[in-house]
């Protein structure tokens, strides 16, 4: 039997890719994690005399979290070693009781829904505004946010995503004002925005500086941190710290990795020292190259353009590229970049391929991506074989047949996709990445969703919840 399959697999991948625009934010570059990375065994310790305990910190872990809180300007910050999913679930369950109602942005991460299953919560949805012209969910409507809170005064908290996976931002300051006007707690899933704080001049405002009560961040996504490293910030007295710490103790491992915790602190320190200068440099290169390609007719999203189209703001470290007008899907473009240019992006959908530009990237990395995109466009635009690609709206407003928790624990059965229409979903149906559920347990499956899933599968996009025989689970 072949040994060291994981190490061999990673080595094989590294040999096939020269430049990557996917997480983790350190991009595998030397010089950032060397102190930790070159001495893994030395730093791999545990809770014992002379170290510290993440769940009851009194020593250097406490000092590290105080340093992170001071850096971000929070009331208290927690290192989260089970990923932001753990932080999100802990935060939601810390602020609610079983049976409570919460309002969530419908295109949020699956961990928000998992919190509702575990906490036995009732969901209300705030749907994003879908822009058919660009095939993208734009900002949420703050008018609809306020109306939802007026119509449902017993909602306990609001959970919103900022920025989205595509870098789209709403007016988070205004959203906080509205939520607090009605006496609710605002939690922001800022998984893709831990870098915003470090470049205030050129990026949208960070959620932690805009009035949110709780912010969860995937430090490993956009900062030079090892995978799974995350932070939770508490920013107001509306949140009970004891409840938060109780939930973190319950949901996090009792054997947290000191290597991972050192990586989180190191990432924040590195950004404090280098983040602003390097982000500004990379954003300037990105914007210059974006405008160059847009002038050629290539659809690369850019903040001024999006704002002119009705979007509130855009994270200018997100490379969102489409060649759908040439009949090239996002997944096809991702594969061309990967196998012909050895450039790996983060994820792709039907229209767009998406990559992350972080402070650890060099200008030549960005140029390499844009040179490749330019070459692909010039080559493929000569072809007469073009097909129309239209992004389908992913979130029809689905009816809840029963509470999510009840559906999740109900007896279920496998059925063919076409036979699932009109039945109640027993598990999530999720294109992955990015991990946003199309259907949640308890929702009735509609024809539009099945059509969308079929298009995703036909174009090589993984859809969790659909098995190899194109069957999915429904409540029996």
UniProtKB/TrEMBL annotation:
Domain Orn/Lys/Arg decarboxylase C-terminal intervals: 367-460
Coiled-coil zones: none
Entry cofactors: pyridoxal 5'-phosphate
Pfam family, one: OKR_DC_1
Molecular-function GO terms, alphabetical: carboxy-lyase activity
Top-rank taxon: Bacteria
Keywords from the named record: Decarboxylase, Lyase, Pyridoxal phosphate
Domain Orn/Lys/Arg decarboxylases family 1 pyridoxal-P attachment site: residue ranges: 8-314
Family stated for the protein in its record: Belongs to the Orn/Lys/Arg decarboxylase class-I family.
The name this protein goes by in its record: Lysine decarboxylase
Species in which this protein is naturally found: Sedimentibacter saalensis
